[in-house]
Design a protein that fits this description.
Layout (H helix, E strand, L loop, with lengths): L10 H7 L12 H17 L5 E4 L2 H7 L11 E4 L5 E6 L3 H7 L5 E5 L5 H11 L5 E5 L5 H9 L4 E5 L1 H8 L4 H24 L6 H14 L6 E8 L19 E11 L2 E2 L2 E7 L4 H20 L6 H14 L16 E3 L6 E5 L12 E4 L3 E3 L3 E3 L3 E6 L2 E4 L15
Parallel strand pairs: 1-5, 3-4, 5-6
Antiparallel strand pairs: 1-2, 2-3, 7-8, 8-9, 8-10, 11-12, 13-16, 14-15, 16-17
Helix pairs in contact: 2-7, 8-9, 10-11
Length: 405
């Protein structure tokens, strides 16, 4: 039989049916940013860290609430274990910095002809840090690391990942609530997208609809990303240069998400437009088994690596793989998600991170059949006191992916 819930509607009808609901969840409040700084300072004290530099971008926002994009000009903040923040910014940007500031701190400005790297050293000295190791935001551009290294010989620079990831990997209830709402929106967009499919529709038409549907749900930026693949194209995990139009009885792979209050959703659905054949159905069913095996392995106290191992063991039991060989799983089983679409922890063989309450990550052990098609079912997990929970209900079957019956 033909796949249930696929086709039969129009772009106009589906867009008109959407009722905006993104307003039903609140963004992160000032109090939570203050708690993040407190946690970071506790970790710094435990590890005898003298200071940590947070660069413009995700980490600066996570800890201070300040939204500032990284550029060729150094903008960032030094956080000291006593909780004090010292911002280092271009002098001419001071007024704007104060406007963007959520968590108060001392602002130090550098003129265009001056060295911001030397200014950072001065701020360290003023705050009693005269030598030793300093932690640097792992996303700091090389030119800043190089500049600081070359303007002094008192300090050694080290990766701040233990602190930044140590905080960001464990999500709060407020973060999970935002992510849940974003995931719910994207799943509804996925359902609507399936209904607009027709023979001959282009990947661009589908991509444009997905963007517009996210906007109609109340996401001003629309889709954060979108991958739409038909038939052979679906065997390439992240797409092809020139996507083909949809034909009858082809595999459809759609991977998309949005940004709500700075947090990201990311869901993939794969099904067949028309009737599935035996091979498509067999691989789809193995994919679902593999996704469930990864979920079952994602228990508190287990490692991220063990979840990836569980995926591969299931695939090997069906004579797929082994390792990254095709037909099989050519990439890791999953990735952390939050303020960035790919962040810690990573569900991959070499990640020995222990799963704990509050961690959030994807479960997407894609199966690629070279030169034929690919099947990826991607849902995300958040860890609770009772173990893993799904953000979104996984696909039901290749004949009824969205569980309408």
């Amino acid at each position: 039989m033909s796949t249930i819930g696929i086709g039969g509607s129009t772009i106009e009808a589906e867009l008109n049916a959407i009722i905006p609901n993104s307003h039903l969840v609140q963004p992160i409040q000032k109090e939570e940013f203050q708690k993040r700084i407190k946690k970071a300072c506790t970790l710094m004290q435990q590890q005898n860290v003298q200071a940590m530099y947070l660069h413009a971008g995700t980490n600066l926002f996570y800890f201070t609430g300040m939204k500032w994009n990284s550029s060729e000009r150094m903008v960032g903040a030094l956080l000291f274990p006593n909780g004090k923040l010292h911002f280092i910014v271009p002098e001419f940007e001071k007024g704007t910095i104060f406007d963007f500031m959520l968590i108060e701190g001392t602002v130090h400005g550098w003129e265009e002809h001056e060295s911001p790297h030397a200014l950072l050293v001065d701020v360290l000295m003023i705050n009693g840090v005269e030598k030793g190791g300093i932690l640097m935001d792992e996303a700091t551009p090389f030119f800043i690391i190089d500049g600081i290294s070359n303007c002094q010989n008192k300090y050694t620079l080290h990766n701040a990942k233990l602190i930044t990831a140590g905080c960001r990997m464990v999500k709060s209830e407020a973060e999970i609530a935002i992510m849940q709402h974003a995931m719910d929106i994207t799943l509804e967009v996925q359902k609507a997208t399936a209904r607009i499919l027709r023979i001959g529709i282009s990947a661009k038409e589908v991509t444009d609809f997905i963007h517009d549907a996210h906007v109609k749900h109340g996401i001003p930026s629309g889709s954060y990303f979108c991958i739409v693949l038909f038939g052979l194209d679906s065997s390439f995990p992240h797409g092809v240069k020139s996507p083909k139009n949809l034909e009858e009885n082809e595999v459809v792979l759609i991977d998309t998400g949005c940004v709500l209050h700075d947090y990201i959703s990311d869901i993939t659905r794969t099904y067949v437009f028309g009737k599935s054949n035996d091979k498509q159905r067999s691989i789809w069913n193995i994919e679902k088994e593999t996704q469930q095996a990864a979920f079952d392995a994602a228990q508190l106290g287990n490692t991220c690596a063990s979840v990836d191992d569980a995926s591969r063991k299931m695939l090997e039991s069906h004579s797929l793989g082994p390792d990254y060989k095709l037909p099989g799983l050519p990439h890791r089983t999953g990735h952390g998600i939050g303020l960035e679409i790919h962040e810690w922890p990573y569900i991959v063989r070499n990640d020995e991170t222990i799963l704990e309450v509050g961690m959030t990550f994807s479960n997407e052990p894609m199966i690629c059949v070279d030169n034929e098609f690919g099947i990826r079912l991607e849902d995300h997990i958040y860890m609770t006191d009772d173990g893993p929970k799904w953000f979104t209900e996984p696909s039901h079957s290749i004949e009824n992916p969205f569980g309408y019956l």
